[in-house]
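Re: the multi-chain job from yesterday

Posting the exact lines I submitted so nobody has to dig through the queue logs.
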Amino acid sequence: MPELPEVESICRGLKPRLVGRCVKTAVVRCAKLRWPVPSDISKKISNQEILDIKRRGKYLLFIFDSSALMIHLGMSGFLHLVTNGNASTKHDHVDFVLDNGFLLRFNDPRRFGSVLLTEKDPLQHKLLKDLGPEPLGDDFDGKHLFNSAKNRSLAIKNFIMDSKVVVGVGNIYASEALFLAKIKPDASVCDINLQQYVLLADSIKSVLLRAIDAGGTTFRDFRNHLGEKGGFAESLYVYNRSGLPCRICGTTIEKITIGQRSTYFCPNCQKYG
DNA sequence: ACGAAGCCCTGCAAGC
DNA sequence: TGCTTGCAGGGCTTCG
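And the result, structure tokens for all chains:
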């Protein structure tokens, strides 16, 4: 599934090929996503030039003169750049037909993604305006985590997955970052000191940067080729490794459920507060 | 106000 | 072999 590094890779890849191009029309094949694709989307962006492509959290933002497209890939969404006339396949939702003989196609089997349009600054859209800082930005650090945790009492894993605290930390990276920071995932945020939050913030940055360096490998591909050597899978310390020995101390990795999600940790390396 | 649970959806894998 | 069941995931929405 596309995580933040994957979305960042897509953004960097599309930018040089799409900025400056015009969208001739948008063809909606299946409007049913997390929210319905706006019925007037084609009318609103037809003959509009793509001025810029940005990322905010896991949202891709296509900036036009008087509107912006907000695309979230959910967990199975994918954007293909194909030649116009390319036969559509199952789960193709929207085609953005470009002025150069190509089209940008949004495909999403599980429909957790979204294609939305806004006519104001997308950063002020209700889905984006309350988001926390970017994890790789300068305004995200241990002090930010420490201050955000004041007067709260939830599990640290749920805390760092809260997009109001910091964006882009998904289920996989949450387990990995907590392992690197040596904190048990079910520890309460109020039992963690500033020094540990500094290490945790560094761990989040580190794991995301390593994933970007791995080329934005998706875990969907990883699963399809389970057992084979694949990019980021080789770097995982705990995720999807229950029953296997910790790469650091050899203790058996355990799996628990926190917030209805699978959570992996080393009972020896990771501590409470 | 906060925290936890519910929900959306499909593909895949495991169990019968 | 074919069916059923359970699980995975992001993140908004609802409930307590």
